[in-house]
Protein backbone atom coordinates (compact mmCIF):
# COMPACT_ATOMS: atom_id res chain seq x y z
CA UNK A 1 0.00 0.00 0.00
CA UNK A 2 2.83 2.43 0.82
CA UNK A 3 4.38 3.92 -2.31
CA UNK A 4 7.68 4.81 -0.63
CA UNK A 5 10.48 2.38 0.06
CA UNK A 6 10.03 1.23 3.67
CA UNK A 7 13.77 0.96 4.16
CA UNK A 8 14.14 4.61 3.16
CA UNK A 9 11.41 5.52 5.64
CA UNK A 10 13.26 3.72 8.42
CA UNK A 11 16.48 5.42 7.36
CA UNK A 12 14.72 8.79 7.49
CA UNK A 13 13.66 8.07 11.06
CA UNK A 14 17.29 7.31 11.93
CA UNK A 15 18.41 10.57 10.34
CA UNK A 16 15.88 12.50 12.41
CA UNK A 17 17.20 10.81 15.53
CA UNK A 18 20.73 11.71 14.45
CA UNK A 19 19.73 15.36 14.19
CA UNK A 20 18.25 15.20 17.70
CA UNK A 21 21.40 13.61 19.11
CA UNK A 22 23.57 16.22 17.40
CA UNK A 23 21.45 19.09 18.75
CA UNK A 24 21.71 17.54 22.21
CA UNK A 25 25.48 17.29 21.95
CA UNK A 26 25.71 13.49 22.10
CA UNK A 27 27.30 13.18 18.67
CA UNK A 28 29.37 15.60 16.62
CA UNK A 29 28.47 17.18 13.31
CA UNK A 30 31.01 14.96 11.59
CA UNK A 31 29.35 11.83 12.96
CA UNK A 32 25.93 13.12 11.92
CA UNK A 33 27.22 13.87 8.39
CA UNK A 34 28.73 10.38 8.25
CA UNK A 35 25.39 8.84 9.20
CA UNK A 36 23.62 10.93 6.54
CA UNK A 37 26.19 9.82 3.96
CA UNK A 38 25.74 6.14 4.80
CA UNK A 39 21.92 6.24 4.82
CA UNK A 40 20.02 7.10 1.59
CA UNK A 41 17.57 9.96 1.89
CA UNK A 42 14.44 11.36 0.24
CA UNK A 43 14.05 14.62 -1.62
CA UNK A 44 12.60 16.39 1.40
CA UNK A 45 12.38 19.95 2.66
CA UNK A 46 12.52 20.75 6.37
CA UNK A 47 12.32 24.54 6.04
CA UNK A 48 8.62 25.38 6.26
CA UNK A 49 8.94 28.54 4.15
CA UNK A 50 10.82 26.76 1.38
CA UNK A 51 8.31 23.93 1.52
CA UNK A 52 5.50 26.46 1.19
CA UNK A 53 7.25 27.92 -1.83
CA UNK A 54 7.46 24.49 -3.47
CA UNK A 55 3.79 23.95 -2.59
CA UNK A 56 2.85 27.13 -4.46
CA UNK A 57 5.04 26.07 -7.39
CA UNK A 58 3.42 22.62 -7.40
CA UNK A 59 -0.06 24.18 -7.24
CA UNK A 60 0.79 26.34 -10.25
CA UNK A 61 2.05 23.26 -12.12
CA UNK A 62 -1.07 21.29 -11.19
CA UNK A 63 -3.37 24.14 -12.25
CA UNK A 64 -1.46 24.55 -15.52
CA UNK A 65 -1.93 20.88 -16.43
CA UNK A 66 -5.63 21.01 -15.58
CA UNK A 67 -6.02 24.26 -17.52
CA UNK A 68 -4.35 22.80 -20.61
CA UNK A 69 -6.73 19.84 -20.54
CA UNK A 70 -9.70 22.16 -20.04
CA UNK A 71 -8.76 24.13 -23.17
CA UNK A 72 -9.26 20.92 -25.14
CA UNK A 73 -12.33 19.64 -23.28
CA UNK A 74 -14.27 22.90 -23.25
CA UNK A 75 -14.92 22.61 -26.99
CA UNK A 76 -17.03 19.51 -26.37
CA UNK A 77 -20.51 19.30 -24.91
CA UNK A 78 -21.54 19.99 -21.32
CA UNK A 79 -20.53 16.47 -20.30
CA UNK A 80 -16.95 17.65 -19.78
CA UNK A 81 -17.97 20.09 -17.08
CA UNK A 82 -19.61 17.23 -15.17
CA UNK A 83 -16.54 14.99 -15.29
CA UNK A 84 -13.69 17.52 -15.35
CA UNK A 85 -13.10 17.37 -11.59
CA UNK A 86 -12.81 13.58 -11.79
CA UNK A 87 -10.15 14.05 -14.46
CA UNK A 88 -8.36 16.64 -12.33
CA UNK A 89 -8.43 14.26 -9.34
CA UNK A 90 -6.88 11.55 -11.51
CA UNK A 91 -4.17 13.98 -12.60
CA UNK A 92 -3.43 14.83 -8.99
CA UNK A 93 -3.16 11.18 -8.02
CA UNK A 94 -0.91 10.45 -10.99
CA UNK A 95 1.31 13.41 -10.10
CA UNK A 96 1.58 12.28 -6.49
CA UNK A 97 2.48 8.78 -7.66
CA UNK A 98 5.21 10.06 -9.99
CA UNK A 99 6.70 12.25 -7.27
CA UNK A 100 6.65 9.34 -4.82
CA UNK A 101 8.53 7.18 -7.31
CA UNK A 102 11.08 9.98 -7.64
CA UNK A 103 11.57 9.88 -3.82
CA UNK A 104 9.82 13.18 -3.07
CA UNK A 105 8.57 13.14 0.51
CA UNK A 106 7.48 16.16 2.60
CA UNK A 107 8.88 18.35 -0.12
CA UNK A 108 6.08 20.71 -1.09
CA UNK A 109 5.47 19.56 -4.63
CA UNK A 110 3.86 16.37 -3.35
CA UNK A 111 1.68 18.43 -0.98
CA UNK A 112 0.13 20.29 -3.91
CA UNK A 113 -0.85 17.15 -5.83
CA UNK A 114 -2.06 15.21 -2.77
CA UNK A 115 -4.24 17.98 -1.37
CA UNK A 116 -5.42 18.90 -4.86
CA UNK A 117 -6.64 15.35 -5.36
CA UNK A 118 -8.75 15.48 -2.19
CA UNK A 119 -10.19 18.88 -3.11
CA UNK A 120 -11.12 17.83 -6.64
CA UNK A 121 -12.77 14.65 -5.40
CA UNK A 122 -14.93 16.78 -3.11
CA UNK A 123 -15.83 19.11 -5.97
CA UNK A 124 -16.57 16.18 -8.29
CA UNK A 125 -18.90 14.48 -5.81
CA UNK A 126 -20.53 17.83 -5.06
CA UNK A 127 -21.32 18.36 -8.75
CA UNK A 128 -22.62 14.81 -9.16
CA UNK A 129 -24.84 14.91 -6.04
CA UNK A 130 -25.98 18.55 -6.28
CA UNK A 131 -24.10 19.47 -3.11
CA UNK A 132 -25.15 16.63 -0.79
CA UNK A 133 -22.85 17.37 2.14
CA UNK A 134 -22.82 13.93 3.76
CA UNK A 135 -21.81 12.11 0.56
CA UNK A 136 -19.19 14.77 -0.20
CA UNK A 137 -17.41 14.47 3.15
CA UNK A 138 -17.61 10.65 3.06
CA UNK A 139 -15.74 10.50 -0.23
CA UNK A 140 -13.29 13.19 0.87
CA UNK A 141 -12.56 11.22 4.04
CA UNK A 142 -11.98 8.04 2.03
CA UNK A 143 -9.72 9.84 -0.46
CA UNK A 144 -7.72 11.54 2.31
CA UNK A 145 -7.20 8.26 4.17
CA UNK A 146 -6.09 6.44 1.00
CA UNK A 147 -3.60 9.19 0.18
CA UNK A 148 -2.21 9.12 3.71
CA UNK A 149 -1.82 5.34 3.66
CA UNK A 150 -0.27 5.48 0.21
CA UNK A 151 2.17 8.39 0.70
CA UNK A 152 2.23 8.90 4.51
CA UNK A 153 1.13 12.48 3.87
CA UNK A 154 0.35 14.14 7.21
CA UNK A 155 -1.72 17.07 5.82
CA UNK A 156 -3.96 14.47 4.17
CA UNK A 157 -4.40 12.75 7.53
CA UNK A 158 -5.47 16.07 9.03
CA UNK A 159 -7.96 16.42 6.16
CA UNK A 160 -9.19 12.90 6.97
CA UNK A 161 -9.73 13.84 10.63
CA UNK A 162 -11.68 16.96 9.67
CA UNK A 163 -13.72 15.12 7.04
CA UNK A 164 -14.46 12.27 9.44
CA UNK A 165 -15.73 14.76 12.02
CA UNK A 166 -17.92 16.29 9.33
CA UNK A 167 -19.26 12.81 8.49
CA UNK A 168 -20.27 12.41 12.13
CA UNK A 169 -21.95 15.81 12.24
CA UNK A 170 -23.80 15.55 8.93
CA UNK A 171 -24.77 11.95 9.71
CA UNK A 172 -26.46 13.06 12.93
CA UNK A 173 -28.14 15.92 11.07
CA UNK A 174 -29.98 13.26 9.05
CA UNK A 175 -31.89 12.30 12.22
CA UNK A 176 -33.36 15.77 12.54
CA UNK A 177 -33.70 17.62 15.87
CA UNK A 178 -32.91 14.47 17.89
CA UNK A 179 -29.57 14.00 16.15
CA UNK A 180 -28.69 17.67 16.55
CA UNK A 181 -29.57 17.52 20.26
CA UNK A 182 -27.36 14.53 21.03
CA UNK A 183 -24.53 15.73 18.77
CA UNK A 184 -22.26 17.06 21.59
CA UNK A 185 -22.51 13.83 23.59
CA UNK A 186 -21.94 11.58 20.57
CA UNK A 187 -18.93 13.64 19.50
CA UNK A 188 -17.55 13.47 23.04
CA UNK A 189 -17.79 9.67 23.26
CA UNK A 190 -16.52 9.09 19.72
CA UNK A 191 -13.49 11.36 20.20
CA UNK A 192 -12.73 9.70 23.56
CA UNK A 193 -12.95 6.24 21.98
CA UNK A 194 -10.63 7.15 19.12
CA UNK A 195 -8.23 8.84 21.56
CA UNK A 196 -7.70 5.63 23.49
CA UNK A 197 -7.56 3.65 20.24
CA UNK A 198 -4.78 5.84 18.82
CA UNK A 199 -3.03 5.86 22.20
CA UNK A 200 -2.96 2.08 22.21
CA UNK A 201 -1.84 2.01 18.57
CA UNK A 202 1.09 4.31 19.40
CA UNK A 203 2.16 2.01 22.22
CA UNK A 204 1.87 -1.14 20.06
CA UNK A 205 3.24 0.23 16.80
CA UNK A 206 5.99 -1.67 15.03
CA UNK A 207 6.72 0.73 12.14
CA UNK A 208 8.32 4.02 13.07
CA UNK A 209 6.91 5.87 10.05
CA UNK A 210 3.34 5.64 11.41
CA UNK A 211 4.23 7.39 14.66
CA UNK A 212 3.66 10.99 13.55
CA UNK A 213 0.35 10.14 11.91
CA UNK A 214 -0.95 8.39 15.02
CA UNK A 215 0.28 11.27 17.16
CA UNK A 216 -1.56 13.78 14.95
CA UNK A 217 -4.80 11.79 15.16
CA UNK A 218 -4.39 11.41 18.91
CA UNK A 219 -3.94 15.17 19.38
CA UNK A 220 -6.91 15.90 17.12
CA UNK A 221 -9.09 13.68 19.34
CA UNK A 222 -8.05 15.71 22.38
CA UNK A 223 -9.09 18.95 20.69
CA UNK A 224 -12.37 17.50 19.41
CA UNK A 225 -13.20 16.06 22.84
CA UNK A 226 -12.83 19.46 24.49
CA UNK A 227 -14.71 21.42 21.81
CA UNK A 228 -17.55 18.88 21.63
CA UNK A 229 -18.98 19.95 25.01
CA UNK A 230 -17.50 23.40 25.43
CA UNK A 231 -20.29 25.67 26.67
CA UNK A 232 -19.77 28.39 24.05
CA UNK A 233 -19.66 25.91 21.18
CA UNK A 234 -22.74 24.00 22.36
CA UNK A 235 -24.77 27.12 23.05
CA UNK A 236 -23.99 28.80 19.73
CA UNK A 237 -24.62 25.59 17.77
CA UNK A 238 -27.96 25.10 19.54
CA UNK A 239 -28.98 28.56 18.33
CA UNK A 240 -27.75 27.92 14.78
CA UNK A 241 -28.91 24.33 14.28
CA UNK A 242 -32.01 24.08 16.45
CA UNK A 243 -33.13 27.69 16.27
CA UNK A 244 -33.37 27.91 20.05
CA UNK A 245 -33.96 31.42 21.35
CA UNK A 246 -32.24 31.79 24.70
CA UNK A 247 -34.07 34.49 26.59
CA UNK A 248 -32.55 36.45 29.50
CA UNK A 249 -32.68 34.39 32.65
CA UNK A 250 -32.83 31.08 30.73
CA UNK A 251 -30.12 28.71 29.60
CA UNK A 252 -29.55 25.68 27.37
CA UNK A 253 -30.44 22.16 28.61
CA UNK A 254 -27.74 20.49 30.73
CA UNK A 255 -26.05 23.88 31.14
CA UNK A 256 -24.39 22.90 34.44
CA UNK A 257 -22.81 19.88 32.78
CA UNK A 258 -21.34 22.02 30.00
CA UNK A 259 -20.13 24.60 32.52
CA UNK A 260 -18.35 21.91 34.51
CA UNK A 261 -16.97 20.29 31.37
CA UNK A 262 -15.56 23.60 30.13
CA UNK A 263 -13.76 24.23 33.43
CA UNK A 264 -12.66 20.72 34.43
CA UNK A 265 -11.37 19.21 31.17
CA UNK A 266 -8.52 21.74 30.64
CA UNK A 267 -7.35 21.12 34.22
CA UNK A 268 -7.46 17.36 33.64
CA UNK A 269 -5.41 17.85 30.46
CA UNK A 270 -2.86 19.93 32.37
CA UNK A 271 -2.51 17.46 35.24
CA UNK A 272 -2.23 14.49 32.88
CA UNK A 273 0.33 16.29 30.72
CA UNK A 274 2.51 17.05 33.72
CA UNK A 275 2.13 13.52 35.00
CA UNK A 276 3.04 11.82 31.72
CA UNK A 277 5.40 14.60 30.51
CA UNK A 278 3.35 14.93 27.32
CA UNK A 279 4.44 18.13 25.61
CA UNK A 280 1.63 18.22 23.03
CA UNK A 281 -1.09 17.67 25.62
CA UNK A 282 0.51 20.42 27.71
CA UNK A 283 0.16 22.94 24.88
CA UNK A 284 -3.39 21.78 24.19
CA UNK A 285 -4.23 22.25 27.88
CA UNK A 286 -2.90 25.83 27.80
CA UNK A 287 -5.01 26.61 24.74
CA UNK A 288 -8.05 24.96 26.34
CA UNK A 289 -7.61 26.98 29.54
CA UNK A 290 -7.41 30.18 27.51
CA UNK A 291 -10.51 29.30 25.51
CA UNK A 292 -12.37 28.39 28.71
CA UNK A 293 -11.60 31.81 30.15
CA UNK A 294 -12.79 33.39 26.90
CA UNK A 295 -15.97 31.29 27.07
CA UNK A 296 -16.83 32.55 30.56
CA UNK A 297 -16.07 36.17 29.73
CA UNK A 298 -18.10 35.92 26.52
CA UNK A 299 -21.28 35.60 28.58
CA UNK A 300 -20.31 36.91 32.02
CA UNK A 301 -18.18 40.06 32.26
CA UNK A 302 -17.42 40.18 35.96
CA UNK A 303 -14.67 42.79 35.64
CA UNK A 304 -13.77 45.40 33.04
CA UNK A 305 -11.47 44.00 30.37
CA UNK A 306 -8.45 46.09 31.42
CA UNK A 307 -8.80 45.03 35.07
CA UNK A 308 -9.28 41.38 34.10
CA UNK A 309 -6.18 41.43 31.87
CA UNK A 310 -4.10 43.07 34.59
CA UNK A 311 -5.16 40.60 37.26
CA UNK A 312 -4.72 37.69 34.87
CA UNK A 313 -1.22 38.84 34.02
CA UNK A 314 -0.32 39.14 37.68
CA UNK A 315 -1.63 35.63 38.39
CA UNK A 316 0.27 34.15 35.45
CA UNK A 317 3.44 35.97 36.50
CA UNK A 318 3.14 34.63 40.05
CA UNK A 319 2.55 31.08 38.81
CA UNK A 320 5.51 31.28 36.42
CA UNK A 321 7.82 32.83 39.03
CA UNK A 322 7.17 30.31 41.78
CA UNK A 323 7.19 27.39 39.33
CA UNK A 324 10.60 28.39 37.99
CA UNK A 325 11.93 28.94 41.49
CA UNK A 326 10.77 25.49 42.57
CA UNK A 327 11.86 23.57 39.47
CA UNK A 328 15.10 25.28 38.40
CA UNK A 329 17.34 23.08 40.59
CA UNK A 330 15.71 19.76 39.76
CA UNK A 331 17.78 17.44 37.58
CA UNK A 332 15.13 14.83 36.73
CA UNK A 333 11.40 14.56 36.19
CA UNK A 334 9.56 17.85 35.78
CA UNK A 335 12.32 20.45 35.64
CA UNK A 336 12.96 23.94 34.31
CA UNK A 337 16.31 22.97 32.84
CA UNK A 338 16.45 23.00 29.02
CA UNK A 339 15.47 19.80 27.29
CA UNK A 340 18.50 18.50 25.44
CA UNK A 341 16.41 16.20 23.28
CA UNK A 342 12.86 16.99 22.26
CA UNK A 343 12.18 13.46 21.05
CA UNK A 344 12.02 11.06 23.97
CA UNK A 345 12.88 8.13 21.68
CA UNK A 346 16.24 9.58 20.68
CA UNK A 347 18.25 7.84 23.41
CA UNK A 348 16.51 4.55 22.66
CA UNK A 349 17.69 4.71 19.06
CA UNK A 350 21.21 5.88 19.88
CA UNK A 351 22.52 2.33 19.68
CA UNK A 352 21.06 1.87 16.20
CA UNK A 353 22.66 5.13 15.08
CA UNK A 354 26.04 4.14 16.45
CA UNK A 355 25.83 0.79 14.68
CA UNK A 356 24.77 2.47 11.44
CA UNK A 357 27.62 4.94 11.62
CA UNK A 358 30.17 2.30 12.55
CA UNK A 359 29.96 0.74 9.10
CA UNK A 360 31.19 3.93 7.55
CA UNK A 361 33.95 4.66 10.05
CA UNK A 362 37.51 3.80 9.21
CA UNK A 363 40.29 3.55 11.81
CA UNK A 364 42.76 6.34 11.79
CA UNK A 365 45.87 5.48 9.75
CA UNK A 366 49.08 5.79 11.74
CA UNK A 367 51.70 7.68 9.74
CA UNK A 368 54.90 5.86 8.96
CA UNK A 369 57.89 6.71 11.08
CA UNK A 370 60.32 9.04 9.36
CA UNK A 371 63.63 7.37 8.49
CA UNK A 372 65.44 10.42 9.82
CA UNK A 373 65.44 10.89 13.59
CA UNK A 374 65.65 14.42 14.90
CA UNK A 375 66.62 15.65 18.31
CA UNK A 376 69.58 14.89 20.48
CA UNK A 377 71.09 18.36 20.30
CA UNK A 378 72.89 19.48 23.38
CA UNK A 379 72.34 23.19 23.01
CA UNK A 380 69.51 25.21 21.32
CA UNK A 381 68.38 22.95 18.49
CA UNK A 382 68.42 19.51 16.89
CA UNK A 383 71.88 18.66 15.65
CA UNK A 384 73.72 21.24 17.75
CA UNK A 385 76.21 18.61 18.87
CA UNK A 386 77.07 17.82 15.30
CA UNK A 387 74.98 14.63 14.99
CA UNK A 388 71.39 13.80 14.02
UniProtKB/TrEMBL annotation:
Q: Which UniProt keywords apply?
A: Membrane, Transmembrane, Transmembrane helix
Q: Which residues cross the membrane?
A: 52-73, 79-100, 112-128, 157-175, 181-197, 209-234, 254-271, 280-299, 305-324
Record carries keyword Transmembrane helix: yes
- Top-rank taxon, per record: Bacteria
Q: What is this protein called?
A: DUF2157 domain-containing protein
